[in-house]
Amino acid sequence: MSNLPDVDKWGYVVCFGTVITFIAGIGHVNSFGLIYNDFIIDTNSTAKSLTTAHGLFAIMLAVGGILLNIIAKHISLKSGGLTGAALFITGAFTTILITNANQLPITFGILQGIGFGMMVPVCFSSINFYFVRKRTFAMSLVKAIQGIIVMWYPQLLRVIVSFYGFRGVLIILSGISLHTIPGMLTMECGNKTTKIHLNKIAKLGDLENGDKSEETNDLLESKKAKENDSRAKRVWNDITETLNVRILNDLIYCNICFGQSFVNFSDLTFFILQPMLLFQHGFDKNEVATIISVGAGADVTGRFALAFISNSIHVNTRLLYFAATVLTLVARIVFIKVQAFIWIAVITGILGALRSCIHVTSSLVISNHVSAADFPGAYALFMLSTGIVNVFTAPLIGALKDIYEDYVPSFYALLACCLPCLVLWPLEYILVKK
Questions:
Q1: Are 418 and 325 in contact (CB under 8 A)?
Q2: 162 burial via Cβ count (<10 Å: 0-12, 13-18, 19+)
Q3: Beta strand extents in 68-191 (DSSP E only)
Q4: What confidence score (pLDDT) does residue 243 get?
Q5: Which domains, and CATH codes, for the chain?
Q6: DSSP helix/strand/coil, 27
Q7: Whose CA, among 301, 302, 377, 424, lies 20 to 30 Å from 1?
Q8: pLDDT, tens digit, 9 for 90 and up, residues 243-257
Q9: Burial (0-12, 13-18, 19+ Cβ within 10 Å), 149
Q10: 76: which DSSP letter?
Q11: In Å, what is the CA distance from 348 to each residue of 25, 185, 233, 345, 407?
């Protein structure tokens, strides 16, 4: 495999394709408040419908990942990724037609969730193939470039809303979603190079081992016999194989998965609802857009810093994730208590920098604990766990706002979502040490 030409060079094209895919897919998520705040008020929609949509999106990410792993046994990664892109684009264009926020769980939550969930594993699998020793560096670089573009999204959307209105924004975002297609095509081109050389290696192996026609016939007969099994059983076997459920016997992995699921949910929901709280405090759209951009800018800075540091010294990703969660909890408590623009901006900047540590190290905490062979199944289970947490917890967060007619109780509930990580991870350390 070391003789594969242009693998390293094409790896950077894959990184570029990953950036395009993520920007076109979820670049606007942190600006949901800017996009949908007036629409929710005008249509008398509830905050619960918005959080439910994001909860469904999270679990559909897992469903999309499982679906891709199953169909990838029969079609190429390009076909699977492009299928996901088609679903995502369909969800984006149908969102233009919604009449209230209660329809978002279908267009955004289900269609776009499954579509994006099919594209993400294609991106990560390609990056993992091309980068081994510099995987942390490559992932940090991708996230940093992505963050630079996302940093300007709030300001851009604010201008678009003022000129073209709510429906105009949705039409433009639908057009941007079309960029997921070239994003997926970059993954296929890289895989073509790999497949060509893997085929050459396979042919060399055939020459060394001699004629295997009889064994091949036996294998074909065995395959035909297996095809007599029920389809339901085959699908179930595919799912359990994809998820690698035996890894659930690893209690440390389960603890990692459980803690991260709640922290990641809390982080995503915090930044989705942050504009709503700021509007409640009386900030105008210019101020809200500026605050969101400050957070995104700090996030970018943190990702570049982490890429530089990880390229120079070894980083304990799990310790960094835990420390970032502790500091995030403290910073959010301060954020809830203050209302002056300058302090809100400063605390948001701190939270953005801490967020970079959480997002970059999230998948690496799992990959550093499990073997390379177990990682795809372990990460699929983690996505499923995060989705389940989102589906059951997100509506409760939105319901708190609807009950109290105030976003502050929802933000206190998001603080509590950090506790599974902050309590169970140190407990695990103590027990394992003993």
A1: yes
A2: exposed
A3: none
A4: 62
A5: 7-195+235-433 (1.20.1250.20)
A6: coil
A7: 377
A8: 667 777 889 999 999
A9: middle
A10: -
A11: 23, 36, 50, 5, 17
